[in-house]
Design a protein that fits this description.
mainly alpha, 10 helices, 76% helix
């Protein structure tokens, strides 16, 4: 029973709880990457999403949310709030960290398609830039197309679920439900 009490008295880090949940939910894994990997992953992702020369605010916000959900810390978050993507940064990561590049290329390309369409549109320039950088990372067109299709399907599926469970939208559901709490 002492162990149970110790667990109850232990301070819970909600940031870690959220990151653990995220990796379990989306990657079906209890393994979280080493904290130091988040920095280069996020830098790579920002460079991919901004490869068309523009990193829109919604794209940056999606990437910052992704960083926070995966367990990135406040220092990293603040760094990437103002980080400006550069071709040189991405080329440096690809050249100096080939093992990292190999194992994260598919997931960063996937996340880049999602981030680049955070404004509800994947522009041709964004798509072309992601493909170019995917080639630089050693990925072929067939694989890039599969990743792009999966990203589009995931986004579409999520919207279908939301439309099913909140047919009048989440805002309407929240506004309607809160009335019960205001009246009590």
């Amino acid at each position: 029973m002492a162990n149970d009490k110790a667990k109850v008295d232990e301070k819970i880090n909600m940031h870690d709880v959220a990151a653990d949940w995220f990796f379990q939910q989306y990657y079906h894994s209890e393994t979280r990457p080493y904290h130091t990997l988040y920095h280069d992953y996020t830098k790579t992702l920002m460079n991919l999403a901004g490869a068309d020369g523009v990193l829109a605010d919604k794209e940056r916000q999606w990437i910052l949310g992704n960083l926070a959900a995966k367990g990135g810390d406040e220092k990293m978050y603040n760094f990437f709030k103002t980080y400006m993507p550069s071709k040189e940064d991405l080329e440096k990561i690809i050249k100096e960290k080939p093992g990292f590049t190999e194992v994260v290329s598919r997931s960063t390309i996937f996340d880049a398609f999602i981030a680049a369409s955070a404004d509800n549109e994947l522009h041709k320039d964004e798509r072309d830039a992601i493909y170019r950088l995917g080639h630089t990372m050693g990925l072929e067109d067939t694989l890039l197309q599969q990743i792009e299709d999966m990203a589009a399907r995931e986004k579409s599926h999520r919207l279908q679920v939301l439309n099913l469970v909140f047919p009048q939208g989440l805002q309407h559901a929240c506004d309607t439900a809160i009335v019960d709490y205001k009246n009590n």
